[in-house]
Amino acid sequence: MLRTPSGGAGHGAAATDSGLMSIGTVLNVLRDEFPEVTISKIRFLEAEGLIEPQRTPSGYRKFSAHDVERLGHVLRMQRDHYLPLKVIREHLEAMERGEAVPLPLVGRQRDGEPLPEAPEAPEGPTAARIGRAELLAAAGIDERELGEWESYGLLTPLEDGVYGAEAVTVASLVVELGRFGIEPRHLRAMKAAADREAGLVDQVVAPLRRHRNPQTRAHAEARAKELAALTVRLHAALVRTALGVRPP
Predict the structure, then answer these.
(1) Among the residues of the chain, which ranges form H helices?
(2) How far apart are CA 186 and CA 173, in angstroms?
(3) Could you give the CA distance from residue 86 to residue 50 in angstroms, rounded to a whole number?
(4) pLDDT value at 77 more than 60
(5) What mean pLDDT is predicted for residues 101-117?
């Protein structure tokens, strides 16, 4: 469960300022469970109608404890079940109506859980997968745009033509950056930097991944996730430093 500041008020116009949180506070609350979440991501989910924070007369967003819990549900469904935003929205609406609706899976098998027909866990980590048509729908783009992004290496299908765990996140961020006039071709430097950072992490965990002991290999994946989160935070801090921007 997400930890929210004490004294949180319920969602609605009756909530007082003391029971509401700024977007920066919400970010800090969420980062314990979702270290890669950003203010831009929260704004994007608001724009997509997944949350509806209140606004002050001057236009600042104010989030209730209910908003934060809803954000947590959205981020968890993206991370653990890899669902398109439309499906997530429909699921949340059903929950708010009091309906018990099981989460649909989009080619997703949770890490560390065995496949139903298998007595043992698979050798390697099981990644979320999404088909091309589902990716286009989730990102709200067409074939031409997706082909352009692939040409710049921003998205790459797997051998069987589906996409991996972060495809929807990458696509959503590329769309959002496009609103500021940043085109996919401008993002090649970011992709190159990400590849170098991934190579550095791989150097650290590669010996563990090659180990014969399954527990050691599992530890390698946990270590890789931890290092990935740290490199993302360092990268963000370095960019803010270069721009002279204060952290959120």
Answers:
(1) 23-31, 39-47, 65-81, 85-96, 132-139, 143-151, 167-178, 188-209, 214-243
(2) 13
(3) 9
(4) yes
(5) 45
